[in-house]
Amino acid sequence: MTRVAIAGLGAIGRVLVRRLNDGLPGLTLACAAARDRSKAQAWLTAEGIRCPLVEPGEFPAHADLAIECAPAAVLERVCRPMLEAGRSVMVLSAGALLEQPELIALAKSHGGQIVVPTGALLGLDAVSAAAEGHIHSVHMTTRKPPRGLTGAPYLLANKISVEGLSKAKRVFSGTAREAAAGFPANVNVAAALSLAGIGADRTTVEIWADPAVERNCHTIAVDADSARFTLTIENIPSENPRTGRITALSVVAALRKLHAPLRVGT
Length: 266
Description:
By secondary structure, this protein is α/β, with parallel strands linked by helices. It has helices at 11-22, 37-47, 59-62, 75-84, 94-98, 102-110, 124-131, 153-157, 176-182, 188-196, 245-257, and strands at residues 2-7, 27-33, 65-68, 88-91, 113-115, 135-144, 169-175, 203-209, 216-224, 228-235. The protein contains 11 helices and 10 strands. The longest helix has 13 residues, at 245-257. The chain starts with a strand and ends in a 9-residue tail after the last helix.
């Protein structure tokens, strides 16, 4: 059995805890960590789930795999102990990972592994395959309801308002690295796309605040020597408007592959 720790009991973490508690083949819920431990314990009790709450530094004593679904600021606190112990971490804050390449080096030196699931995007298998050849360009356009972008550091720093919009407004154009830094809670998909393909400085991104959409919409366009493709996904927001429902389900799908007799996709 693979023992799994969950870091963060927000919209994503709660789905994962429920699924693991209900049972996934070869996996067991080992422990969890939460910023507000009393609130987390109250939720676990109400759900009838028995799960020890510990600090992220204690994960290696309990778990073989930790899933990071917490604020990006705590990525290192979750990853470092597990990687130093040669364990695995599934990272959803892919944008923060771009800013901390030393974690990848740590995984390599200690025999650990960082896994970035597909999350709210699609087509990462195709992008990874194309990267085995030569990719000429990768561009992503994101459209979100304005409320899903409220409070983003880039908007605050540049005094860009998304309140009361009557039509779509482009609020950002730049590289995936810049997008991940400016919108840490919104476009981890851009970071994951860049990691799968040609890197954070060659992957380009546009972000639009669009009052006409109710879903988080992402379109990626890839031009490579093996294929040219455009893929679009419209994600239904979770209880957290910054996060699509499919993100947590992507992690569940990745977990199922760990012990599955048949694995489909890379």
